[in-house]
């Protein structure tokens, strides 16, 4: 009797990055899925789930009472601070340190 193949589980951040790549890369879902080594139907399911889920800014703004614009501005400031810390900690001459560096 053949055994049923068990579905592979992927980390949440892998799914998030895959969805962002599928949405923003301009590549077909098939190409993105092949590049990531996952099934096209799996990627399509993740993208569909992403579109049905409210984004974090909407959830935070509804809880905090801030407008979505204010919430996004706060998030941008936080991410810029984090990026600056990473740049400061990156080894001298690394590609990350040069990437996005201010001239």
Radius of gyration: 19 Å
Strand content: under 5%
What is the makeup of the main sheet?
A: none
| Helical coverage, percent range | 55-70%
Low-confidence stretches: none
Given the C-alpha coordinates, what overall shape results?
extended
Taking the alpha carbons of the first and last residues, their distance comes to 65 Å
Short account of what is shown:
With 103 residues, the chain is an all-alpha fold. It has six helices and no strands.
Explain the overall architecture.
The protein has 103 residues and is mostly helical. The longest helix is centred in the last third of the chain and has 22 residues, at 68-89. It starts with 11 loop residues before the first helix and ends in a 5-residue tail after the last helix. The protein has six helices and no strands. It folds into two domains: 12-52; 67-98. Helix content is 67%, strand content 0%. The model has no long low-confidence stretch (mean pLDDT 80).
Topology diagram in text:
Blueprint: H1 12-24, H2 29-36, H3 40-52, H4 56-64, H5 68-89, H6 95-98
Helix pairs in contact: 1-3, 2-3, 4-5
């Amino acid at each position: 009797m053949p055994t049923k193949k068990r579905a592979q589980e992927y980390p949440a951040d892998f799914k998030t990055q895959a969805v962002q790549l599928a949405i923003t890369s301009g590549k077909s879902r098939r190409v993105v899925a092949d590049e990531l080594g996952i099934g096209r139907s799996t990627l399509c399911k993740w993208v569909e789930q992403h579109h049905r889920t409210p984004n974090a800014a909407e959830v935070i703004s509804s809880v905090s009472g801030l407008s979505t614009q204010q919430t996004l501005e706060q998030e941008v400031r936080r991410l810029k601070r984090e990026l600056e810390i990473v740049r400061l900690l990156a080894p001298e001459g690394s590609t990350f340190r040069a990437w996005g560096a201010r001239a």
